Amino acid sequence: MTSSKDTKQSKKPLTLSRPNSLELKKTVETGQVKQSFSHGRSKSVTVEVKRSRTFERGESGRMAEVTTPEPQLTEAPKPKEAVVVKKAPAAKKPIKPKATQDNLTNAEKAKRMQVLTAARQAEEGKRQAAEEEKLRLEEENKRKAVIQAEENARLKADEAERLKQETEAARVENAKSSMEKAEDEAKVAARATTEARKKREAAERAPDRRPARQEKPKPKKKPAAAPTSVGDAIAQELGGRVKQGNKPSFTPKQATDKKESTGDRRNKGKLTISSATSDNDGRQRSLASVKRRRQKKLQQERGGNRAAPMKVLREVILPETITVQELGNRMAERATDVIKELMKLGVMATINQTIDADTAELVIQELGHTYKRVTDADVEQGILGVEVDDEGDLATRSPVVTIMGHVDHGKTSLLDAIRSADVVRGEAGGITQHIGAYQVNLKSGNKITFLDTPGHAAFTEMRLRGATVTDIVVLVVAADDGIMEQTIEAINHAKASGVPIIVAINKMDKPGANSDRVKQELLQHELVVEDMGGDVQTVEVSAKAQTGLDKLEEAIMLQAELLELKANSDRDAIGTVIESKLDKGRGSVATVLVQKGTLVVGDIFVTGSEWGRVRAMTNERGQQITEAGPALPVEVLGLNGTPNAGDDFIVVENDAKAREIAEYREQKKKDLAAAAEGRGSLEQMLAKLKEGQAEELPVIIKADVHGSMEAIATSLQKMNTDEVKVNILHTGVGAINESDITLAQSTGAFVIAFNVRANPQAREMSRRENVDIRYYSIIYNVVDDVKAALSGMLEPEQREKFLGYAEMREIFNITKTGKIAGCMITEGIVQRGSKVRLLRDNVVIHDGTLKTLRRFKEEVKEVKEGYECGMAFENYFDIQVGDQVECYIIEEIARKLD
Ligand SMILES: Nc1nc2c(ncn2[C@@H]2O[C@H](COP(=O)(O)OP(=O)(O)OP(=O)(O)O)[C@@H](O)[C@H]2O)c(=O)[nH]1
């Protein structure tokens, strides 16, 4: 660009007639111009016009210069003339011949100037293009370097990530140190990425550092196709087309900078008409696009699977059966991928479906993982920790006592009497709560744990589950009543479980009390008391008068000593559930008797097919405690379901283990239930067949507490006969839910709700599905109703009812109907359709049905004694005069269960 200012500043001002004034004409005439470029540089150029000289031999024979006439102003410049553009320093000579220029016409001068300017601009354009090309190359190189650095950083990050994941897998064995390492790796990778990013940003900023002039945009007002370089300007001036494609490419960042430098930041990113119509924008690749292409290329190089190098191969613990989802989880694969693999194997399975280990094995291999087969039993292996504790770790523990005896012999009274002797009870305060068991602190310093469960039913129930909680049985026998039915039952149960018995002869305060009689009776049941040379201790007590309690305590402690009751308190707790219930405010609550180790708040445990974390523990006085040692019963909060009385309670190392065991047990329970329904083993099927036509009444029992539930179940099972049976499909503690209704609906069962109600959803469902829910609060009512239902299922009793006799007086042979007997009713009545027996000489010769009963050719309902009638038998014609007809009907009488 040339300006008068530049001209003015040049060292040798040309022939300016008037300095400081703008006179384009004159500057051109000087032949020297100063030019400044967009990148900030400027230079002076001198324009010289050289004329060629020609020589000819003159008349004198000497060579002489031929002087040609000055060109006409109207003529175009001669081709002989050459325009040379020189750099300023070289052009020190004044422009000559000055006179020649002076001779040019104005038009000629303008034309020449135009040509000169065009030539100069063409030169400038070329130089600028070369310069831009150089910059572009530089930029390209920088970008390549950045891409390379980025790629290196990314690979490093990938590697670090892979290492991290491997370390993660190894963490199962040795977690901490490996994890730190992986984190370090990740940090290094992150640092590398940050550096790469910084580098890239620096590189991107680099073009910004170029001279501001170079970035100077073209005038804003110009259209999109405005010339962007001097070369373009010339070309455009000469009527040529600006070919954008040939322009040196520049990065989007440059483009942005360019835009920004125009001060049009607000329009950044907006679509304008010019930008939309501009070819330039259409041809430029965005940075994101470049990145995408690069990533795509990389992916292709790696075989098109981006995740492949990141995949962590795992060892899958494979049980005998596994759900598709669980299999996916264990491999850290998506369930859909597992399903796809299964489909390839020809197995159509849904996400919740269980597949066998063999199929799962193939899927695992297919997905590149390894497996470790475990049997069902392996799941529970090691759950109990160290099975046998070292002798040195063992310490004496207090005995656990169960009180049994006949109804009203004073079990509750005796327990109350003992409890009232508790020294801690009075001091500590708190309201005594029923938690099914409690520990009594006696004056002597001894502690005895009593199981406060009613009767021997709970004892038996626990024993059935394999739980041996009780160390000693105290058999309460009323001195005035002696051995009764339930006393004998209790003796048998205690004997069967091998638990020693101490006999407490109660009600000694009563006038008719006779302890010797009791001792004698005990002999009949193979219980030889110490007085008679045996090993069974007897203690005479009175719960009412609170006498003999010390002796009972002594007897218990002596027995405990003999049993050498010891436990290791310094280990993870193992215990048994004594009672469980669903508390409205606290959720599932279980009374647990710790048998080994110490249960601490926060421990994770498995109990039956439930698991949880000990949220809080309370004793029978409702006081919060944080630890519970051996032989201490505690109420535990934090279960995720309600376990059964007698279920084990084991502390495990983590949630995963607890969940795994609970799930395994739940599955086992389901399998057992399925087997019990006859879909199980062949033996069970055969047994069912052998049972013959045994009708079953399917029921579901839901109760408020475990005790009531057990009581109802036991009562109902007692009603079973050879003909009818109660099939208890499910029992549970808590409200009736939708799952109960579903089960009832599918099996045709009815639901016994004892002191519980159905939740709204279950209620709605039961109405919809027509499932019968019976609400009870008295066990006898349950028993009565079930008895009635069972009775209704009994085959009715069939009884024969005699109607009358008839005597055959005449036999008619009628062609169409066969033989008809003309009879006289001698006794009672004869009814149409009734059963008949044909007697000849008092011998039954036929038993069948009466086909027709007529009087005077008309069919009648019945004929009474003393009247004549016609009879014919169904499919029987061997009748004679004198035969007797005995007429009777079969009555059905409903039966009742006893
Ligand atoms: N005289 C006298 N009566 C007693 C004694 N112990 C209990 N009783 C009474 O015997 C009755 C039954 O006592 P419980 O303690 O309820 O007997 P139980 O064996 O727990 O009865 P169930 O819970 O129904 O099995 C009550 O009326 C008591 O007052 C005692 O030592 N002397």
From TrEMBL:
Stored InterPro entries: EF-G-like_DII, EFTu-like_2, IF2_assoc_dom_bac, IF2_II, IF2_N, P-loop_NTPase, Small_GTP-bd, T_Tr_GTP-bd_dom
Region spans: Disordered: 1-307
Name of protein: Translation initiation factor IF-2
One family name in Pfam for this protein: IF-2
Annotated binding of GTP, by residue: 405-412, 452-456, 506-509
Gene Ontology MF, one: translation initiation factor activity
Protein family per UniProt: Belongs to the TRAFAC class translation factor GTPase superfamily. Classic translation factor GTPase family. IF-2 subfamily.
UniProt xrefs under HAMAP family: IF_2_B (MF_00100_B)
Keyword Phosphoprotein appears in the UniProt entry: no
Compositionally biased residues, Basic and acidic residues: 48-62, 121-143, 151-217, 255-266
Biased composition (Polar residues): 29-45
Gene3D superfamilies: P-loop containing nucleotide triphosphate hydrolases, Translation factors, Translation initiation factor IF- 2, domain 3
Entry keywords, A to Z: Cytoplasm, GTP-binding, Initiation factor, Nucleotide-binding, Protein biosynthesis
Record SUPFAM superfamilies: Initiation factor IF2/eIF5b, domain 3 (SSF52156), P-loop containing nucleoside triphosphate hydrolases (SSF52540), Translation proteins (SSF50447)
Domain Tr-type G residue range list: 396-566
Localisation per UniProt entry: Cytoplasm
Species this protein is from: Kiloniella antarctica
